[in-house]
Automatic annotation (TrEMBL):
InterPro entries, alphabetized: Na/ntran_symport (IPR000175), SNS_sf (IPR037272), YocR/YhdH-like (IPR047218)
UniProt-listed CDD domains: SLC6sbd_Tyt1-Like
Sections of the chain in a coiled coil: none
GO cellular component: membrane
Organism: Vibrio gelatinilyticus
Record-linked Pfam families: SNF
Compartmental location: Membrane
Swiss-Prot/TrEMBL keywords: Membrane, Transmembrane, Transmembrane helix, Transport
Chief localization: membrane
Membrane-spanning parts: 12-30, 42-66, 87-120, 140-158, 170-189, 209-231, 252-274, 312-333, 354-377, 383-401, 421-444
Superkingdom of source: Bacteria
Protein name from the UniProt record: Sodium-dependent transporter
Membrane topology: Multi-pass membrane protein
């Protein structure tokens, strides 16, 4: 169980940077722009913004509230609320721990590739052309080395604890990420073809709006905030009691959305710059080619057409991607580490190393059996476990936890909330609307 010496975020801004860092990952910087490009540009953007307000923000408040009330890992926090059925609390808390671990196992492989593509121009610059080519070429040995490197970075940060590890590195990496975004967007807008991409991004084509687009936007909003897997619950448990949860959740959502919007401002114009430079990005019927591999195909091709400056831009871009991946992976590892540390009373450093190694072994198994396991693990963890856990958290808040207890918890950082519009809407909204919305994200692709 949680101890009195349990770590906490030392400041509200530290928490906001860490929580935003958890949310800001490849789903924002890579997933959102490719979803936008594949779903009619600005029409998807409008729906995404709507879903951030209607689904993601209310669920973020729910997870943070559960975590801060429990002041512990997901298993213990759920047990504190689910008093009449402790077994279910343990089961779903454990599933959250497993889901976060599975996501990290394939996420670390992708992040390793990003390190490779970022380091390749530097290696070429110092004359190591063979090594640079190896870093960019798919292969089991290269995948293993880069995955180990990325997992090592993640374990290093998490074992340092909340204030000295997660908060310290998040407050360093997130501002750097913002600066890199600003520099890259500023540069790409000077290139021929960028305005065409900007028009696609900002001028809606409403003919693309259908049920599939709405559900995709809903899923993107839900996943981009790291909801469902217990990461926000754990981070909420490190919040001081005098923090205004609703306002802080709003600030995290705004930063997360801002990064996604910035990614769109970078990636979509970059795609059309690449098209202008002779790189094929759409097929004959106008569909985006290999949206899943966009980062590893279209953009490196674009950087190659830019000459020497392209190497610098490429390095900056992949550095940005690695930072986004690392701030998310820290949160994913923190979920099982908090459980092991507090439930089994294992030292944080030891728990981080044990779980880091266990997840790395799973990553190695995926690398060796990539074609059969990578998509399978990604699908099970993100398309099945994550949304179904989101439904469970909504049920816990809406149907299991007494409303007066929720109000008492939220009021600690916001004494006047009972009189405001938020408290008049949020409890019944999370009770009825959110479970149906998240279930729709889960069920629609199966239909």
């Amino acid at each position: 169980m949680a101890s009195s010496s349990r770590g906490q975020f030392s400041s509200r801004i530290g928490f906001i940077m860490a929580a935003a860092g958890s949310a800001v990952g490849l789903g924002n910087v890579w997933g959102f722009p490719t979803q936008t490009a594949s779903n009619g540009g600005a029409a998807f953007l409008v729906m995404y913004l709507l879903m951030m307000v209607l689904l993601a923000f209310p669920m973020l408040v729910a997870e943070l509230t559960i975590g801060r009330y429990g002041q512990s890992n997901p298993i213990a926090s759920l047990k504190k609320i689910w008093v009449r059925n402790q077994a279910l609390a343990i089961v779903f808390g454990s599933i959250a721990m497993l889901a976060a671990s599975l996501i990290l196992s394939f996420y670390a492989i992708l992040a390793g590739w990003l390190i490779g593509f970022g380091a390749a121009p530097v290696m070429e610059l110092v004359g190591l052309k063979g090594f640079a080519e190896w870093l960019e070429t798919y292969g089991v040995a290269r995948n293993l080395v880069l995955t180990v490197l990325f997992m090592g970075l993640t374990v290093y940060v998490v074992q340092k604890g909340v204030a000295n590890g997660i908060e310290k590195w998040s407050t360093r990496l997130m501002p750097l990420l913002f600066v890199l975004f600003a520099v890259l967007i500023g540069y790409i807008f000077t290139q021929e073809g960028a305005i065409e991409g900007l028009e696609m991004y900002l001028i809606p084509d409403w003919s693309h709006v259908n049920a599939g687009l709405v559900v995709n936007a809903m899923g993107q909003a839900f996943f981009s905030l790291s909801l469902g897997v217990g990461a926000m619950m754990v981070y909420g448990s490190y919040l001081k009691k005098d923090i205004n949860i609703v306002r802080t959740a709003g600030q995290v959502a705004v930063i997360d959305t801002g990064v996604a919007l910035s990614a769109g401002l970078l990636i979509l114009p970059a795609m059309f710059v690449a098209k202008h430079n002779g790189v094929q990005i759409f097929n004959e019927v106008g569909e985006l080619i290999s949206s899943g591999n966009l980062v590893f195909t279209v953009l490196p091709s674009l950087f190659d057409t830019m000459g020497p400056i392209g190497e610098v831009i490429g390095l900056a871009f992949f550095a940005l991607m690695v930072i986004a991946a690392l701030t998310s992976s820290i949160a994913m590892l923190e979920v099982p580490v908090a459980c092991l540390h507090e439930e089994l009373n294992i030292r944080r450093e030891k728990a981080a190393k044990i779980l880091g190694l266990a997840i790395l072994i799973l990553s190695v198994i995926i690398v060796v059996n990539f074609s059969s396991l990578f998509d399978l693990v990604a699908t099970i963890s993100t398309m099945y476990m994550q949304p179904l856990l989101g439904v469970v958290w909504a049920i816990v808040i809406g149907w299991i936890w007494h409303r007066n207890k929720q109000l008492e918890e939220i009021k600690q950082g916001n004494p006047d909330i009972e009189q405001g519009w938020f408290w008049k809407i949020w409890p019944w909204y999370v009770k009825f609307v959110c479970p149906i919305a998240v279930l729709t994200v889960f069920l629609y692709p199966q239909l």
